[in-house]
Specification:
T-fold, 8 helices, alpha+beta
């Protein structure tokens, strides 16, 4: 993915962990920090890039508010990334999600406001996609992780057992005013890797706005959120070419708030005995989804949808395939671009009602 902020071009690479989870990261590479003066001269931008969550590239760029400490604002934003990662890391024993997964959930479980918010957005996309997005796939992802280690694909019996332990329909979310979630299967385990990167970006955007930032861009892997004025120029986000990491497939341009989520099979596929498998799984079969879908990009304009929704929708659209995936994005009142491979080669379909914000290169 490529992004252009004022006169500066920044190449953003996407990264997906093996389990598409959000593991925490206690040791980070040295920050790349830039403070950029752009016309008019009294406006300055502060830019910081890191790798977080086990190597996912992240960037925060914001217009420095008058008489505000840019470093303090930046630190608050990174702290928020850390906070969300610590809640949803299924491999960190002290995280809320790890404790929830390990609990014998025979009684309703009290969850935090962040956990409940993510579960509600996940429910919306689960229902809209007919179950194509399902955050209860931790048993399946664990099974395929083991398969990669032993270099042997799971058997049909193993897949059937893993699928039997999943199903978001077995989780009942509370009515407003309650924070207790009910599990019909007490041993269910969740993995919100297909939605929480987007949620993390949403929360960092909120943090920046609360500290007086009036224009910014936040990026985490394939999640990008930009808001307000880019010095009178459109925000520009490039869609990665699915087969050539040195090329951009297309470019999105928009003046005003823009949110983009991209999911693709071009980063860290599962390799077993030389065969490449998609890292996104079909909840119905337990199998990795088809290679015919090479990349999905979901877009919202002017704050019509947050990145958490886009993130989950991109995952679901990958499972559904081009036609049904595009229909899903339209039903969620977002715009979709789906790159896929067929007998005629690589092509794309896009939302027919998409404004003139996107051009294929």
């Amino acid at each position: 993915m490529q992004l252009k902020l004022t006169g500066i071009t920044i190449v953003l690479t996407l990264a997906c962990s093996l389990l598409a989870a959000l593991p925490g990261c206690d040791q980070r590479p040295k920050d790349s920090v830039k403070t950029v003066a752009t016309p008019p001269p009294e406006i300055a931008w502060h830019s910081v890039s890191r790798e977080i969550y086990w190597g996912i590239p992240a960037s925060i760029k914001f217009k420095i508010p008058k008489e505000k400490d840019a470093t303090a604002i930046s630190q608050a934003a990174w702290k928020e990334f850390d906070r969300i990662g610590d809640i949803f890391n299924p491999f960190k024993p002290e995280s809320e999600l790890a404790k929830l997964n390990g609990a014998n959930k025979v009684k309703p479980q009290q969850v935090s406001a962040d956990m409940l918010a993510v579960m509600r957005i996940a429910r919306r996309v689960y229902d809209a996609s007919g179950g194509a997005f399902d955050p209860t796939l931790f048993p399946l992802k664990s099974l395929w992780k083991s398969a990669v280690k032993r270099q042997s694909a799971p058997t049909q019996q193993e897949l059937a057992r893993a699928v039997a332990a999943t199903g978001y329909q077995y989780i009942t979310l509370p009515e407003k005013g309650s924070d207790s979630v009910t599990f019909a299967k007490p041993d269910m385990r969740c993995d919100f890797g297909g939605i929480v990167k987007g949620y993390a970006v949403d929360q960092v955007v909120k943090t920046l706005k609360s500290l007086g930032v009036t224009a910014a861009l936040v990026q985490l892997g394939g999640e990008v959120a930009a808001f307000e004025d880019n010095n009178g120029k459109p925000w520009r986000v490039g869609v990665q070419h699915p087969l050539d990491m040195q090329k951009v497939w297309g470019v999105i341009e928009h003046r005003g708030s823009l949110r983009v989520s991209t999911s693709g099979n071009y980063r860290q596929p599962l390799i077993i005995n030389g065969k490449s498998y998609y890292h996104i799984f079909d909840p119905r079969s337990g199998e990795p989804v088809s290679h015919t879908v090479l990349g999905v990009t979901v877009i919202s304009l002017n704050n019509s949808a947050d990145n958490a929704l886009l993130d989950a929708a991109a995952t679901a659209a990958t499972v559904l395939g081009p036609a049904q995936g595009l229909k899903l994005t339209q039903g969620l009142k977002t715009y979709g671009i789906i790159i896929h491979q067929d007998a005629d080669g690589i092509t794309e379909i896009r939302s027919p009602d998409m404004p003139a914000i996107y051009k294929q290169r």
